[in-house]
Amino acid sequence: MLRIAVPNKGMLAETTAGMLAEAGYIGRRDPKDLHVIDPINDVEFFYLRPKDIATYVGSGALDVGITGRDLLLDARMPGAREIEQLGFGGSTFRFAGPPGRFTELADLDGLRVATAYPGLVDAYLDEHGVAVDLVPLDGAVESAVQLGVADAVADVVSTGTTLRQAGLEIFGPVLLESEAVLIGSPTPAEGTETLLRRLRGVLVARRYVLIDYDLPAHLVDQAVALAPGIESPTISPLRDPEWVAVRVMSPRKTVNQVMDSLYEMGARAILVTAIHNARL
Predict the structure, then answer these.
(1) What is the rounded average pLDDT of the residues 104-126?
(2) How far is CA 263 from CA 109, 210, 213, in A?
(3) At what angle do helices 11-22 and 192-207 cross, to 10 degrees?
(4) pLDDT class for 162, splitting at 50, 70, 90?
(5) Fewer Cβ close by (within 10 Å): the C or N end of the chain?
């Protein structure tokens, strides 16, 4: 039975639960449950703090897990390895400090840096030859400078509004581009490939749609150049020998532009269908 670690709370938990449900797994019904067995799919889920998942998986106590790349690197568990990006929970890590005080990474040398990810930041600064006094915090990192606990901070940044409100400005390079990832233990476990194939199917379904349309046969090459699909479109004859029916997978985010272009080209009866799951 495959043992899977999943976040029990936080911004990753809800999306992870939804993705696993779309992949056909049975999750917990009560948010207080910490352990759920899915006998139909031969897996069991362990609901853990997101920060602890890499430790459990890296030690081999559990087979695979879903967590953030930032949490994986922060745990510094040699046995935990990233298997697949899952396309949600994106975040960017940056340094920030009082306006005008810092311009580059070397300016931090010998100073105090507050962060909720000491393992991640320490490894990054070591790699770049910058020695600092790390101040580990478990939240509200942006207040550390104002309260005199640190000279600068390293934290997750989306728009930068929270940092600006705390009187800080971003400087230096990006530490890390993070997102949710599937991670594995040192020894690959039976059932991991099935889980991975299912999750990839969900990702395809979320990113692509099916477009069906009718088109004059002499325009097929132009239409295929516009919407080539993942492999190759399906071309079927119609009763009118001068027309064909085309089916193609197209990226969801650009589907309306593709539909407009196909219509202008001469395509008609253009229909878009959602994909609920896939195996490619």
Answers:
(1) 95
(2) 60, 16, 9
(3) 100
(4) confident
(5) C
Secondary structure (DSSP) of 201-212? HHHHHHHEEEEE
Which residue has tokens 């005080």? 101
Within 8 A by CB and 6+ apart from 106, the residues are 130
pLDDT-above-70 percentage for the chain: 100
The one-character DSSP state at 260 is H
Phi, psi (degrees; rounded to nearest 5) at 47? -90, 115
Give the Cα separation of 95 and 163 in Å (integer).
Answer: 10
Question: What's the pLDDT at 157?
Answer: 85
Task: Give the span between the Cα atoms of 155 and 152, in whole angstroms.
Answer: 10
> What is the reported pTM?
0.86
Backbone angles phi, psi at 234, to 5 degrees: -90, 125
Residue 28 CA to residue 191 CA, distance in Å, equals 20
Residue among 209, 215, 279, 206 nearest 249 (CA): 209
Burial class (CB within 10 angstroms; exposed 0-12, middle 13-18, buried 19+) of 163:
buried
User: What six digits make up the tokens of 245?
Assistant: 């029916």
